Structure formats: structure tokens, C-alpha cells
């Protein structure tokens, strides 16, 4: 204990100016610049590397090696230093940000502690690299060589790398694997001071991650959340191919570089007051001429936009699935066999909160966050992650105003407002998405047709609670892409 404290005090004294700078950047930057945490992360990485390499583990000419210092005391001192001067300031900075945005940080204490655990896991690869390199310059060279390797899965192995709403599923596999290798490298280097075996462990981590992406074990990760409808107590819900679709809907979106085929589905057995939202899909297609498409789980699923008055009720939908344009060209007009796996969330209408449309009108929604109305858009903030609940926003048709610049021959069936917000199905209390820091920002655009909310329009915000995350598999045989699937199958 005495040796550990001696090392800790020595590091604090020697790095006092760097400590002051990093803590100031973390606290001030975390509060005023929480939308740009890159600067905070860079400063903290610099401090972590400095404290590890001030007692270098590579070579045998360091002064500390000649002293009877147990490696456990050295590692414990470095661990406490990193926790005190990176994790603790980050915790208070995040607390201040949530309090400033009226997001009640005390009610998100578990999520804030989860962030600290995630930071600890994130620091391990940095600590391992610092432990197996002689100095900062050598570490930068290693980073320049290894960082491009992270794009190998994107370009060559896993085409569904950009999962967005499914990032938690990938992380649930990748993060524990990275943790095991990085921790093993750190413990080996501190206990043995043999750099090359530790470097070999880190290189093995990259190989193991590449093998994981090649094996695509994401199906098991998806299974952590999505199960059969009967397991959730809603066995009546069934999703099936709609052999007699209603009138065609207009096209939706596509993933970058992909095209969408629209499959008509029928949703049966929905309890009253519930809705289904599709979160992800996996599709395998084989055409009669031998062309195949096998996609991994992808969040790029797009319900086609219905033409008002031209489609059936909410029990029927045309769902867009992203596939390769090259496959569509090879498949042509031939018939195909398809296997589709769908991951969907069933929402139950819970309670309704009204909001009067006025510039900068603000509404606090308990358990979800704070939303502000401005310029036909609700700008919403939530703490640490997107909420698992979804907002359904409606308004009385006669309270909406027509766009002043549109043609005068608009028809009244376009006078409606019925939109839904983003949500998350992650089982974790924190999601790292882009540069938002501890606050997730998302927008709900309310002007979806030729009509928009007017000043004084009463918005009815229905809070929809998830009651089931279901998985359904469909087999569709002998269907023709440019006919049976959808009269307008691509966008």
C-alpha cells in the first residue's frame, strides 16, 4: 500500500500541469462543449499515455526497475490515477450537462455509472498500447498503422457494419472480446515486462475481431432482445406475406448504395391500442437464374409512405428491404424464393400529453426527456440514450394550416398529422451515438403533408410503451420482383 501511494503521489506531482489542463478541459468542455467530446477524449488519452509511460515497461534501463516495487502496486497506482483524473471529472461533467438540460441526473445515476464502466473498458486498449510502446511517438506510429485496419470489416467482411440502431447488438459481442485481449496484454506486460508477447496478444485481438465479423454471430446478439411473440404473452400477433396487397404506396428510402424492394405484409392479431414498428430485417433471395443475395441483419427497413385514402388500415404495410443493385440487375424479371427474418417492436398506447404549438414552447415528458417546438419541428433531448418509449404525435385536422406556397388545388385527404419519434431497443442504459455526449438529441418533423401545425394547434402526444420485441420469419416462394412483390419495387 505504501509503495502504491508513493507512486501515485509521484505521478500527481510530476504531471500536475497536465492534470490541471485535462481536468479543466473535461469539466469546462463537458459543460459548455458537450456536443464536441472529441477534444475531451483526446486530452484524456494524452494523460493516460503519459502516466503509463512515465514508468515505462519496455526496456530494462528505467530507474524504477532497480527498486523493489511489486508490479501490482505499480498497476494499482496507475489505475487509481486514471480513475481519479479522467473518470471522476467525466462523471461530474455529465451530471452538470444533464442538470443544465433539466434531465434530472439523479434519476439516471445507474446510466452515469454505466458510462464510467464503458470508459474503463475503452481505456484498456489505450493502456495496453502505452504499456507495449517506449514513448508517445512510438505509440502514434502504431496507431497510424493499426487504425486503418478497423475499416477492414466495413469494406471486406461485414457489409452491415453501419448498424446505427443495432450498434448495441454488435457491441455486445465485440466489446467483451476486446476487453479479454486488452486486459490479458496489460496484465502480462506489467507482470512479465516482455513486450513482444503482449504485442502479440494485441495483434491477436485484431485477428479475432476480423474472424468474428467474418463469422457474423450477430444473430445470437439479436436474440438477446427479440423473441417469438408467444414468449411475450402476445401469441396472437402474426406477420405474414400479403398475397392481395392494397393499392401501391409511394416509395420510401434506401440504405446508401443499395436499392429497396417493397414486400407487402399483413399484421394479424394486434391487441387493441397497439402498433408494430419494424426495427431490422435479414433477407436471403435466390432467383431462378441462380443469382443470390444474402444480407446480414440491417436496420435499413423502410415502411413505404401510404397515399392518403389509397391504402388499407394499420394492419397492412409495404416494407422496404435494402438489397444490392447488382443483384437486382442479375435477377431481372425472373421469379425468386425469399427468406425474410423480421425484428419488430410492439407498442401499447400508454398516456397522452397535450402541447400547444407556440414558438419555443417547451414540454417535459416524464421518463423520456424535454421537447421544444420550433419551426414545424419538435427538438427533443433525452438522457444518455434514446428512450425505449415512442411518441405518437397527432392533431385535429381542422386545426392544421395549409402551406402558403402550395398549389390551391390541394385535397382535404392530405389534411392530417400522425407521426412517430425515434426510439431504442438497446438493453443497456447508455448508448454512444455520435457527438452528443450524455445527451441524445433527436428531431420530429411535423409537416409531413401539404398541411402543418398552426400557432395554437393542440398536439396530442401519445406515449407508446414497448410491450414486446418479436422476431418473425417468412418464406416467400416463386415471387416475381417486378410484379408480385410490388408494382413499384425500387425507389
Chart the SSEs and their pairings:
Blueprint: H1 2-14, H2 16-32, H3 38-53, H4 71-100, H5 109-131, H6 136-146, H7 152-157, H8 167-192, H9 195-215, H10 218-222, E1 238-241, E2 259-268, E3 274-287, E4 292-294, E5 301-303, E6 316-323, H11 325-331, E7 335-356, E8 361-365, E9 369-374, E10 377-383, E11 390-395, E12 400-402, E13 418-420, E14 439-445, E15 451-453, E16 458-480, H12 481-485
Antiparallel strand pairs: 1-2, 2-6, 3-4, 3-7, 5-6, 7-16, 8-9, 9-10, 10-14, 11-13, 11-16, 12-15
What is the succession of H and E elements? HHHHHHHHHHEEEEEEHEEEEEEEEEEH
Runs in which pLDDT lies below 50 for 5 or more consecutive residues are 247-252, 483-491
Topology, number of strands: 16
Q: Strand-residue fraction?
A: 25-35%
Strands of the biggest beta sheet: in what spatial order?
Answer: 4-3-7-16-11-13
- The number of distinct structural domains comes to 2
- Report mean pLDDT, rounded to a whole number: 79
Measured distance between first and last alpha carbons: 67 Å
What this model shows, in words?
The protein has 491 residues and is an alpha+beta fold. The protein folds into two domains: 2-222; 229-485, no CATH class. The chain has twelve helices and 16 strands. The strands form four sheets. A six-stranded antiparallel sheet has the order 4-3-7-16-11-13. The chain has a four-stranded antiparallel sheet with strand order 1-2-6-5. Helix 2 (16-32) runs antiparallel to helix 3 and helix 3 (38-53) runs antiparallel to helix 4 (71-100). The longest helix has 30 residues, at 71-100. Mean pLDDT is 79; it is low at 247-252 and 483-491.
Amino acid at each position: 500500500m505504501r509503495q502504491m501511494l508513493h507512486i501515485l503521489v509521484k505521478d500527481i506531482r510530476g504531471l500536475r500541469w497536465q492534470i490541471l489542463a485535462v481536468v479543466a478541459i473535461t469539466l469546462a468542455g463537458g459543460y459548455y462543449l458537450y456536443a464536441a467530446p472529441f477534444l475531451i477524449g483526446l486530452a484524456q488519452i494524452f494523460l493516460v499515455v503519459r502516466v503509463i509511460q512515465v514508468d515505462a515497461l519496455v526496456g530494462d534501463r528505467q530507474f524504477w526497475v532497480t527498486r523493489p516495487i511489486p508490479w501490482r502496486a505499480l498497476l494499482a497506482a496507475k489505475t487509481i490515477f486514471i480513475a481519479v483524473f479522467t473518470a471522476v471529472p467525466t462523471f461530474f461533467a455529465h451530471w452538470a450537462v444533464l442538470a443544465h438540460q433539466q434531465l434530472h441526473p439523479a434519476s439516471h445515476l445507474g446510466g452515469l455509472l454505466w458510462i464510467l464502466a464503458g470508459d474503463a473498458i475503452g481505456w484498456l486498449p489505450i493502456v495496453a498500447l502505452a504499456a507495449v510502446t517506449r514513448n508517445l511517438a512510438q505509440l502514434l506510429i502504431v496507431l497510424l498503422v493499426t487504425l486503418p485496419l478497423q475499416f477492414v470489416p466495413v469494406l471486406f467482411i461485414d457489409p452491415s457494419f453501419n448498424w446505427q440502431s443495432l450498434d448495441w447488438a454488435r457491441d455486445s459481442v465485440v466489446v467483451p472480446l476486446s476487453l479479454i485481449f486488452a486486459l490479458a496484454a496489460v496484465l502480462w506486460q506489467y507482470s512479465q515486462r516482455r513486450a513482444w508477447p503482449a504485442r502479440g496478444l494485441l495483434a491477436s485481438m485484431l485477428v479475432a475481431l476480423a474472424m468474428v465479423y467474418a463469422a457474423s454471430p450477430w444473430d445470437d446478439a439479436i436474440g438477446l432482445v427479440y423473441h417469438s411473440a408467444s414468449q411475450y404473452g402476445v401469441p396472437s400477433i402474426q406477420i405474414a406475406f400479403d398475397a392481395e396487397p392494397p393499392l401501391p404506396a409511394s416509395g420510401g428510402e434506401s440504405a446508401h448504395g443499395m436499392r429497396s424492394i417493397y414486400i407487402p405484409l399483413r399484421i394479424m392479431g394486434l391487441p387493441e391500442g397497439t402498433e408494430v414498428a419494424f426495427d431490422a430485417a435479414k433477407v436471403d433471395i435466390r432467383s431462378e437464374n441462380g443469382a443470390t443475395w444474402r444480407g446480414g441483419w440491417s436496420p435499413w427497413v423502410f415502411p413505404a409512405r401510404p397515399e392518403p385514402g389509397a391504402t388499407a388500415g394499420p394492419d397492412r404495410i409495404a416494407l422496404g428491404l435494402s438489397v444490392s443493385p447488382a443483384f437486382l440487375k442479375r435477377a431481372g424479371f425472373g421469379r425468386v424464393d425469399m427468406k425474410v427474418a423480421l425484428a419488430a417492436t410492439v407498442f401499447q398506447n400508454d398516456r397522452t400529453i397535450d402541447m400547444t404549438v407556440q414558438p419555443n414552447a417547451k414540454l417535459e415528458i416524464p421518463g423520456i426527456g424535454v421537447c421544444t417546438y420550433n419551426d414545424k419541428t419538435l427538438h427533443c433531448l433525452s438522457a444518455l440514450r434514446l428512450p425505449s418509449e415512442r411518441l405518437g404525435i397527432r392533431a385535429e385536422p381542422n386545426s392544421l394550416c395549409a402551406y402558403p406556397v402550395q398549389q390551391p388545388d390541394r385535397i382535404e385527404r392530405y389534411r392530417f398529422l400522425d407521426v412517430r419519434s425515434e426510439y431504442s431497443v438497446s438493453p443497456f442504459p447508455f448508448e454512444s451515438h455520435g457527438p452528443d455526449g450524455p445527451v441524445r438529441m433527436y428531431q420530429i418533423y411535423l409537416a409531413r403533408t401539404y398541411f402543418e401545425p398552426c400557432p395554437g394547434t393542440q398536439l396530442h402526444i401519445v406515449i407508446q410503451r414497448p410491450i414486446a420485441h418479436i422476431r418473425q420469419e417468412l418464406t416467400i416462394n416463386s415471387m416475381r420482383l417486378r410484379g408480385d412483390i410490388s408494382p413499384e419495387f425500387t425507389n
